[in-house]
From TrEMBL, chains A, B:
Signal peptide: none annotated. This is Trehalose operon repressor. It comes from Thermohalobacter berrensis. CDD domains: WHTH_GntR (cd07377). Pfam families: GntR, UTRA. The keyword Transcription applies. NCBIfam families: trehalos_R_Bsub. Gene3D superfamilies: Chorismate lyase-like (3.40.1410.10), Winged helix-like DNA-binding domain superfamily/Winged helix DNA-binding domain (1.10.10.10). GO terms for biological process: negative regulation of DNA-templated transcription. Residues 2-70 form the HTH gntR-type domain.
Amino acid sequence: MNTKYLNIYNEIAGNIEKGEIKPNTKLPSENELVKKYSVSRDTIRKALNLLEQYGYIQKIRGKGSYVIDINRFDFPVSGLVSFKELSEKMGMKANTILEELQIIKPDKYLMNQLKIKENDDIWKVVRIREIDGKKIILDKDFFNKSFVPSLTEDICKDSIYEYIENKLGLCISFSKKEITVENATKEDKKYLDLQGYNMVVVVKSHIYLDDANLFQYNESRHRPDKFKFVDFARRKKLME
Amino acid sequence: MNTKYLNIYNEIAGNIEKGEIKPNTKLPSENELVKKYSVSRDTIRKALNLLEQYGYIQKIRGKGSYVIDINRFDFPVSGLVSFKELSEKMGMKANTILEELQIIKPDKYLMNQLKIKENDDIWKVVRIREIDGKKIILDKDFFNKSFVPSLTEDICKDSIYEYIENKLGLCISFSKKEITVENATKEDKKYLDLQGYNMVVVVKSHIYLDDANLFQYNESRHRPDKFKFVDFARRKKLME
DNA sequence: CAGTGGTCTAGACCACGGT
DNA sequence: CCGTGGTCTAGACCACTGA
C-alpha cells in the first residue's frame, strides 16, 4: 500500500480482525495516534473515517473511538467480492464448473442491462459454483467485449476479476446489486442441486469501472437455503 | 443543516435528483467549486466524497467528477430507512396493523440477539405491513427497555424511529442486516397473504445508537415475490 | 504543458463528555 | 476545566489526463 492513511487503516483494521484490539475497547485518541505514527491529524482522521465506514469502530464526540463488536466472519458478501476471493476467505471447499463461454450478440434485455447496441459483441460466461460437492450457485456473466477483448477457459475457471484487474489493468470501482427471489426456471433445475426447492435467490449486479463505464452484468442464482447476505449500513444523512 | 460541507452536499445531491445536473456530465472542478461557494478546497472535497460514497458521482483523477447514471428511484432499501419513510418515498398505499405490543422477558435467543440479561425488560412489537391491501410484511421488533422506557399504540402505528429520534433524542447510527430465505412458519401463514408461497425472505437487523449501544433487534419477514433489496457498493480497499 | 483530483501538513476554533 | 472528536482554512507537493 502506498499512502500513509491506508497503511494506518490496514494496520488498525488488521489488529482488530486478529483480535489484538478487543471489541468495546477504546482506541488511542487522535492526538495520541498523531504522535505514534508521526503524521498529521488529518491523516489519522482519514484512517479512522475508513475504519468507521467499514464498521470497525464508532467515533463518539467528546469520548473517543470505540471498537465495534460486529462478528465480521459471518459472511462478508457486502461490498464487491468475487466468488473466488470469498470462498478462499471462508475456507470452503469450492469448485467452479465452466458451462458455457462464447461471444454473442445481445438480445433486447442485455442491450438494456449493458447499455449497448445490437451489433456490439458480448462475452457470455456461464459457471456453476459447487460448494462441498453441491451445485449451489448458477453464475451468468456478460462482459462488454470492448473492455475485455479476450477470455479463455482457464481464466474463467480461475478468477475473472483477478485477470481483469491485474492483467488488463482495469480498475473495478462500484456496483449496483439487486436481490430478489424468483421461481426456479428449467435452467436452474437443470444445472443446480435444488433439493426440491422451487425458488432461487437472484442477485443481479451491474459493475462499473473507475471511469464510470458499465462493463459487466452478472446474474447469480442461489439455492435459497444456502443464501445469506450481510450488510453493514450507516444511517444516511438526510436531504432537505 | 449546520455544516458547510453538508449544505454543499445537499445542494448538489438535490440538483442531481431533480435532474438539474444530468447524468454523465461533469461537475465543476474542485477549484471552481471553491470559488463558487467561497470555502476551502477541503470543505469541497468533503462534500464530493459524500456524493461519491452515496453513488451520485464518480471522481476520476486528472479528469474531474462525473455524475453517475444510476436510477436512484428504483428501490432504496439500502442504508437505514424505516418502513414509513420508505413507503412515503415510493408513494405506496401502505398501512400498518399493530398485532402485539407488550413488555416481555427475553428467552435465550433474544438475550443473545440483544446482548442482555434474563431479567432485563424488552418491548416486543409485532406489526403487519399492508401494501395495496395485501399483507406483505411481518415485522417483529424488540427494544431494550432501558433505552425506550415507554411505547404506545399510537407510536407503533406511526413511526417508532421518528419517536425515538425526535422525542427521545436518541441517535440511530448504524445497523447490521442479514438477509436469508426460510420456509414459512405457521405464524407467517397466519398473518400474511402468502398466496401459496411456502417461503419467506427474512431480514434480521441489529440496530445501534451513536454511542455504539445495541438497542434494537428486528426481524422482518417478507412475501418472496414482493421483496427487493438494492445495494450500491464500492469495491473495498484490500487488506495486507 | 496546464488542469485535474489525491495526499499531507499545521494550525485554528467549535461542540461535546466527563471531572 | 481539559480532552475528545468535528469543522474549516491555506498552502504544499504529487500523479494523472489531455491537448
